[in-house]
Amino acid sequence: MDGQSLPVPLQSAVEGFRRYLAGERARSSHTVRAYIADVESLLGFAVQEGVGELKDLELGSLRRWLGAQSEAGMARATLARRAATARSFTSWALREELIGVDPAVRLQAPKRDKSLPGVLHQQQMTRIVDDLTKAAEEGGPMAVRNRAMVELLYATGVRVGELAGLDIDDLDPDRRTLRVLGKGNKERTVPFGVPAAIAVDDWLRRGRPAVVTALSGPALFLGARGGRVDPRQIRAVVNKVLQDLGDTSATGPHALRHSAATHLLDGGADLRAVQEILGHSSLATTQIYTHVSVDRLRKSYQQAHPRA
């Protein structure tokens, strides 16, 4: 039911809310349209339940409205936005004395899914690094760099911005550790393995010297013109690698971070150790990877066990 099909009192309320959003709240035209569409959806649902005036709107109708959309498969992020719109609308209506009690005060937005980009299987990562190693052996300095960046992203789970910000002095080749400046300027030390060490050493010996300039400074990874590599360049490299892989929904450098964390837990790493490696301030953020690992275990069980 659109706004023109609503009873006149409800149409008037919608128009008043539209003026409030565009005027006092100075919302963009796009935002106003989204808010009004949500309100019209809510009031159209309420009319079907017998509501003819705004003062008759109750919390039960709001909850059933969200429930119906959830059952229809609407994303939780969209449901959360619609719940926020409903609360904004009824709060405005109370201020304007169109209603005596705000029915949305106790309306809870559904929690958003804690979702992750596609996580790569270990065999897929092996194919990726094998292809990059071959390209580095046959190609120029940028191919050598790309191999080193991907190896280091997967080995350490660092964020793309953290990788771009690395200086040569942040490397400790003897201990095979990396000094990383993370969110909130918090510094952490992250270990990496032999394959990443070999790839980075190759970059420092024959890749970086081929493109370094007087303006390169201490940056570990450089672009083709000698400047510090940009996060967008790193994303482009990783997206190309994942696209060439062909059998994954994973996209972007964060997929390598998620894959590193998942593979660590699959291999028996302690959750708090993974938290430290990733630089999470809260253990709850790291715990999402335990769900990913359990899901992968369950799928393997169902595929392999004769009585699964």
Please provide a written account of the structure:
- The protein has 308 residues and is mostly helical.
- The protein has two domains: 93 residues; 181 residues, Orthogonal Bundle (hpI Integrase, Chain A).
- It is 59% helix and 4% strand.
- The chain has twelve helices and three strands, in the order αααααααβββααααα.
- A three-stranded antiparallel sheet has the order 1-2-3.
- Helix 11 crosses helix 12.
- The radius of gyration is 27 Å and the shape is elongated.
- The model has no long low-confidence stretch (mean pLDDT 87).
Summed up:
The protein is mainly alpha-helical and 308 residues long. Helix content is 59%, strand content 4%. It folds into two domains: 3-95; 124-304, Intergrase catalytic core (hpI Integrase, Chain A, Orthogonal Bundle), CATH 1.10.443.
